[in-house]
From TrEMBL:
Active-site annotation: K367
Class of enzymatic activity (EC top level): transferase
SIS domain: residues covered: 45-184, 217-362
Broad class of where this protein is predominantly found: cytoplasm
Keyword annotations of the record: Aminotransferase, Cytoplasm, Glutamine amidotransferase, Repeat, Transferase
Identification of the protein by name: Glutamine--fructose-6-phosphate aminotransferase [isomerizing]
Length: 372
């Protein structure tokens, strides 16, 4: 009913709007005033966590994209090698696991069969399994050694939004907690990152307040034949997520690419007017990557692309090269997906609505896929 949707046309729009609160709820009680992480509910001893010498993240769909972002943060903060794998591929390729491997299973529903089977495989190999889930008491948390709940509240729309942002937050907490427990070099950063994490709910709120031009843009993209998304570093998984949202909701051909791969094939897809959504890194944090993205934008534009840039406030270099710039608040590079993803969610919902689709119940898709 309209009341359940809180005045929004679709649950997805309500859930997009709930993201600042959801992010705050995931953080609540897990950061101390001294800038430390407390994950008391993670029932793995500090010694277990110090013994971890390899991490696998397994997940499907949007949760897999959260895992791809997590790899950048976890390896940077902990120096523990971290691989991310689609749950449906994991157990069939004989992955190398033992008791010092930590497997992180990310699942909003906690009931995705591919992810359940991946975690069962991990347990047989004696790995420790940590679940990140939004659903209390669901199968994945129950079968795991430890769980971190995202507390995003129920997500009704098939396309995941607030669950994704809170999965990112949970992954950041896991990475910071590991760094802290192991006392390694990057643990120095933990205090600073904690403060930056605490600022994220209000930054997501700022993004939401500036979405009208994005909706307008969405209405103008409804007849595109194909939409490409490019990014580097954590902007790459954000590009994948933006493309997935568009496929799911608008039934349009959409692909996400690592911007550096363009020249190895995807650039051949670009012709006159092809929309290319470009997720830029902060020019302050990763200047080299930012320069490279600007070059990539010039390359696609020279082939006729219609460039939409998602860039940080104060990024003056991008505007001359883009047809449209969406500015997001200044954010440390590793946390940027919490803000850069939001315009892509809004864009996909608006394009889908423009094309007359049911934004909450896309054809052929299920909220939770309980078959392998
Ligand atoms: C389905 C949903 C996606 C979701 C994926 C993984 O495909 O349509 O939105 O990302 O399952 O779901 P999970 O509950 O495991 O996060």
């Amino acid at each position: 009913s309209a009341a359940e949707k809180g005045g929004y046309d679709y649950f997805m729009l309500k859930e997009i709007a709930e993201q600042p609160k959801a992010v705050a709820d995931t953080l609540r009680g897990r950061l101390t005033e001294a800038g430390e992480i407390t994950l008391d509910e993670v029932r793995l001893s500090d010694q277990d966590l110090r013994d971890v010498d390899k991490i696998f993240i397994v997940a499907c769909g949007t949760a897999y994209h959260a895992g791809l972002v997590a790899k950048y943060a976890i390896e940077h903060w902990t120096r523990i090698p971290c691989e991310v794998e689609l749950a449906s591929e994991f157990r069939y390729r004989d992955p190398v696991l033992d008791r010092s491997t930590l497997v992180v299973a990310i699942s909003q529903s906690g009931e995705t069969m591919d992810t359940i089977m991946a975690l069962r495989h991990a347990k047989v190999q004696k790995a420790r399994v940590l679940a990140i889930s939004n659903t209390n008491g669901s199968t994945i948390p129950r079968e795991s050694d430890a769980v971190l709940y995202t507390h995003a509240g129920p997500e009704v729309a098939v396309a995941s939004t607030k669950a994704f942002l809170t999965q990112l937050v949970a992954c950041y907490l896991v990475g910071l907690h590991l760094a802290q427990v192991r006392g390694i070099k990057y643990a120095d950063e933990v205090g600073a990152v904690v403060a930056q994490l605490q600022a994220m709910p209000s930054k997501v709120d700022e993004v939401l307040a500036t979405m009208e031009p994005v909706r307008e843009l969405g209405r103008s993209l409804g007849s595109a034949r194909s939409v490409l998304f490019i990014g580097r570093h954590v902007g790459y998984p954000v590009a994948l997520e933006g493309a997935l949202k568009l496929k799911e909701l608008a039934y349009m051909h959409a692909e996400g690419f690592a911007a550096g791969e363009l020249k190895h094939g995807p650039i051949a897809l670009i012709d006159d007017g092809t929309p290319v959504i470009c997720v830029l890194p902060s020019p302050r944090g990763r200047a080299v990557l930012h320069d490279k993205m600007i070059s990539n934008i010039q390359e696609v534009r020279a082939r006729g692309a219609r460039v939409v840039a998602i860039a940080e406030e104060g990024d003056t270099a991008v505007a001359p090269h883009a047809d449209h710039v969406v500015y997001v608040p200044r954010t440390p590079t590793l946390l940027a997906p919490l803000v850069t993803t939001v315009p892509l969610q809004v864009l996909a919902a608006e394009i889908a609505a423009t094309r007359g689709h049911d934004v909450d119940q896309p054809r052929n898709l299920a909220k939770s896929v309980t078959v392998e």
